[in-house]
């Protein structure tokens, strides 16, 4: 009953929540836990495949999702089709890939005969479905995943080329109309458009989001940026970022650019609203990103594990303070607490006390980060 929909309880999967490959919980309604007795048949399980029955195909493709462990507990509602691969004794990935194929999409032909863009479960039930032995299904899945990973790399390179071309044009225009004092900065921006830069940064963001899943921190853009700052400046993972002083700590706008680009195209990341704040998480295609064989990804993961062991129990405010002090040490070449406090006060007036600086510096020196910043 829609009259029982609530803000808390068991999440309900509606048509509006089904996107391309994952469940989007931005517009989530719940059903009270006290009312779900006797509704077990509507409870969803991990790896269930969901297809929207209302407007199942839109301009960007089929509205289909796979239930993951992080989506649970959740329940099915009207006008959403659930396929349980376990009951069919089918590899769920094989089944999912078949639903994405043109064979399925052309077969359902939604709305063409009646002019109504809807689909019925019987339309799916009556379709012929190729069912090879389980070992063959697994072989096909493995082959498709390999090819999809290869396609991801090709797409990424095309996107990088587009970005590089745009940046090069802007750099040329800027150089043409800039003064001599600006030429050095322009040339630096041109040289930074190397082939691997954007993809390596994306791998780093993926490693950060993966690591933060087990931490209490909200995964906002500024938190991600500070983690990347630590990885690059303390753990020496090479991203090629140029962090500058911003209100909430060291920041590079390229972090936002990579996240926003991915949200539009690749879906390795996703955006959510948590307590009124915009946060990020790994998206439906994150598995392909995080399977990539890369030193950047390997080093980022190992560094995140060590980093969270050190700062995992500190509050967000202290993380900001430590990152800001590290940036002051880097930029101002100071190490005495009073000097750091004065420079920090110029950056963030009246936000921190000398006692705050001393407490943070004890940690920085204990971890020997001051030596790493000086190297």
Task: Fill in the keyword field for this structure.
375 residues; alpha+beta; Adenine-n6-DNA-methyltransferase TaqI, Chain A, domain 2; 3-stranded mixed beta sheet; elongated
Task: Write up what this structure looks like.
With 375 residues, this protein is of the alpha+beta class. It has 4 domains: 128 residues, DNA methylase specificity domains (Adenine-n6-DNA-methyltransferase TaqI, Chain A, domain 2, Alpha-Beta Complex), CATH 3.90.220.20; 55 residues; 118 residues; 62 residues. Helices cover 51% and strands 12% of the residues. It has 15 helices and 13 strands. The strands form 5 sheets. A 4-stranded mixed beta sheet has the order 2-7-4-9, with helices on one face. A 3-stranded mixed beta sheet has the order 3-1-8, with no helix packed on it. A two-stranded antiparallel sheet has the order 5-6. The radius of gyration is 25 Å and the shape is elongated. About 3% of the residues have low confidence.
Compute the separation of the termini in Å. 64 Å
Which architecture of the largest domain per CATH? Alpha-Beta Complex
Main-sheet strand order equals 2-7-4-9
**Percent helix among the residues?**
40-55%
The major sheet is characterized as: 4 strands, mixed
CATH-defined superfamily of the largest domain = DNA methylase specificity domains
Query: How many structural domains are formed by the residues?
Result: 4
Please provide the count of β strands. Answer: 13
**Coarse morphology:** elongated
Low-confidence stretches: 181-193
State the helix count.
Answer: 15
């Amino acid at each position: 009953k829609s009259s029982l929909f609530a803000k808390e309880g068991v999440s309900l999967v509606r048509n509006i929540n089904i996107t391309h490959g994952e469940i989007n919980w931005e517009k989530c309604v719940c059903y009270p836990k006290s009312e779900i007795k006797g509704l077990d048949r509507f409870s969803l399980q991990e790896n269930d495949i969901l297809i929207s029955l209302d407007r199942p195909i839109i301009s960007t493709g089929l509205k289909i999702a796979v239930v993951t462990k992080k989506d649970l507990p959740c329940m099915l509602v009207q006008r959403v089709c659930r396929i349980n691969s376990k009951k069919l004794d089918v590899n769920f990935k094989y089944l999912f890939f078949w639903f994405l194929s043109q064979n399925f999409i052309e077969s359902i032909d939604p709305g063409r005969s009646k002019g109504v863009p809807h689909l019925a479960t019987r339309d799916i039930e009556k379709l012929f479905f190729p069912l090879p032995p389980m070992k063959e299904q697994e072989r096909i899945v493995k082959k498709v995943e390999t090819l999809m990973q290869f396609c991801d790399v090709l797409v990424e390179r095309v996107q990088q080329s587009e970005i590089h071309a745009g940046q090069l044009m802007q750099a040329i225009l800027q150089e043409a109309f800039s003064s001599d004092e600006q030429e050095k900065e322009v040339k630096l921006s041109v040289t930074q458009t190397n082939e691997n830069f954007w993809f390596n940064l994306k791998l780093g963001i993926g490693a950060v989001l993966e690591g933060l899943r087990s931490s209490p921190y909200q995964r906002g853009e500024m938190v991600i940026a500070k983690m990347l700052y630590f990885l690059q400046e303390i753990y020496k993972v090479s991203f090629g970022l140029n962090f500058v002083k911003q209100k909430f700590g060291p920041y590079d706008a390229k972090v936002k650019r990579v996240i926003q680009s991915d949200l539009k195209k690749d879906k390795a990341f996703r955006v959510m609203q948590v307590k009124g704040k915009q946060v990020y998480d790994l998206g439906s295609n994150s598995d392909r990103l995080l399977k990539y064989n890369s030193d950047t990804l390997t080093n980022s993961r190992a560094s995140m594990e060590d980093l969270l062991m050190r700062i995992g129990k500190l509050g967000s405010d202290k993380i900001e303070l430590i990152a800001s002090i590290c940036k002051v040490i880097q930029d101002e070449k100071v190490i005495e607490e009073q000097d750091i406090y004065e420079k920090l006060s110029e950056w963030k007036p009246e936000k921190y006390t000398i006692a705050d600086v001393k407490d943070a510096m004890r940690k920085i020196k204990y971890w020997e980060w001051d030596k790493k910043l000086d190297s």
